[in-house]
TrEMBL record:
It comes from the Bacteria. This is Transaldolase. One of its GO terms (biological process) is carbohydrate metabolic process. InterPro entries: Aldolase_TIM, TAL/FSA, Transaldolase_2, Transaldolase_AS. Its EC number is 2.2.1.2. Pathway: Carbohydrate degradation; pentose phosphate pathway; D-glyceraldehyde 3-phosphate and beta-D-fructose 6-phosphate from D-ribose 5-phosphate and D-xylulose 5-phosphate (non-oxidative stage): step 2/3. Transmembrane segments: none annotated. One of its GO terms (molecular function) is transaldolase activity. GO terms for cellular component: cytoplasm. It is found in: Cytoplasm. It comes from Acidihalobacter ferrooxydans. Keywords: Cytoplasm, Pentose shunt, Schiff base, Transferase. SUPFAM superfamilies: Aldolase.
């Protein structure tokens, strides 16, 4: 008897589960293929921190480093990194190719991020994204671009040119509105020029748990009963109201005109979905955010837990009045959500940049060790 894939019920509800992890041994040991074929995994995301742990903390990449240095001993550490990362991403993309085809080119994506050092440089982001797109040369690639103020025009330009974009580091509803507008602008521009829309896909990666980490600290500092009662509720409320905005836009004439021209919706992707507070349910940022036109990308531990926790109901549109009330209470308490999300964006850019620099430093150490041993 063939058993249904454990993630299929979520797929049936319109939510795709992706894995927020990549490492070279996943291809050799068949674990990624199993996740796709047996579990129903629909895609994968990566970031500098993930590659830092994979490349810097294991010897899995030494052979590839030797080969790359033998090919070109003068390439920079950053060039070396992208060579290794692109090889991993290509292997993953090829494994997800059947999902991409079976879904009508709306799933089966793997994300590769531009250098986080470019988060404040629009033109350099565009150049590097295009270069990575050409090098990877797979239709189910998504290029990750942070949703900084400087990133928004880069995102719009890249989408208009036909690249698939994963818009990352989103924390605020206001910035998400700007991202969704940029997506619609890009599609409208293509439509006006008679260019096809059907092959373009994008997700807007809305970070969840980190919002609670910041706000819980502020609520505990306030200490009032109203403040303490909000702990662990604000991040989900923030995400639900972002989804409500997506639903509002999709019901409007602007989107309907694009949908009639075969445009794909820009899905909301829930990122940072592992629970940071051990007192909270481990799937707090998963089972509360189930709904159509969404993706949830999970780190391995959260992914494994989800496999053994069947979810079969849409929850994203529940308790919207309570979600609005939570954010209104924050305002009444004098906690500035916009200031918190601005800080989270800056900290995210800084953390990814530091991980990237650490990774390049470790690659430099490893190339020196390999040279000495040769």
């Amino acid at each position: 008897m063939t058993h249904p894939a454990p993630l299929q019920p979520l797929t049936d509800l319109g939510q795709s589960i992706w894995l927020d992890y990549i490492r070279r041994d996943m291809f050799a040991d068949g674990s990624l293929r199993r996740m796709i074929e047996t579990d129903g995994l629909r895609g994968m995301t990566s970031n500098p921190s993930i590659f830092d742990k994979a490349i810097a903390d294991t010897e899995l990449y030494d052979e590839a480093l030797r080969a790359e240095l033998a090919r070109d001993a003068h390439q920079s550490n950053q060039e070396l990194f992208f060579r290794l990362a692109i090889d991993d991403v290509r292997q993953a993309l090829d494994l997800f190719a059947p999902v991409y085809e079976a879904s009508g080119h709306t799933d089966g994506f793997v994300s590769l991020e531009v250098s986080p050092e470019l988060a404040r440089d629009t033109d350099a982001t565009v150049r590097e994204a295009k270069a990575l797109w050409r090098q990877v040369e797979r239709p189910n690639l998504m290029i990750k671009v942070p949703a900084t103020r400087e990133g928004i025009p880069a995102i719009r330009e890249l989408l208009e040119e036909g690249l698939n974009i994963n818009v990352t580091l989103l924390f605020s509803i206001e910035r998400y509105r700007a991202v969704l507008d940029a997506y619609l602008d890009a599609l409208e521009s293509r439509l006006a020029k008679g260019q096809p829309l059907a092959a373009i896909n994008s997700v807007a990666s809305f970070f969840v748990s980190r919002v609670d980490v910041k706000l819980d600290a502020a609520l505990e500092a306030d200490g009032s009963p109203d403040a303490l009662a909000l702990r662990g509720h604000c991040a989900v409320a923030n995400a639900k109201l972002a989804y409500a905005h997506l639903q509002h836009v999709m019901a409007g004439e602007r989107w309907q005109r694009l949908a009639a021209a075969d445009a794909n919706a820009q899905r909301l992707l829930w990122a940072s979905t592992s629970t940071k507070n051990p007192d909270y349910p481990p799937l707090l940022y998963v089972d509360t955010l189930v709904g159509p036109h969404t993706v949830n990308t999970l780190p391995p531990a959260t992914y494994e837990r989800l496999l053994h926790t069947p979810l079969s109901e849409v929850t994203i549109d529940r308790d919207l009045d309570a979600a609005r009330g939570a954010l209104q209470t924050l305002e009444r308490l004098g906690i500035d959500l916009d200031a918190v999300t601005d800080q989270l964006e800056q900290e995210g850019v800084t953390a990814f940049s530091e991980a990237f620099r650490h990774l390049l430093g470790r690659i430099d150490e490893r190339r020196a060790q390999l040279k000495a041993a040769s």
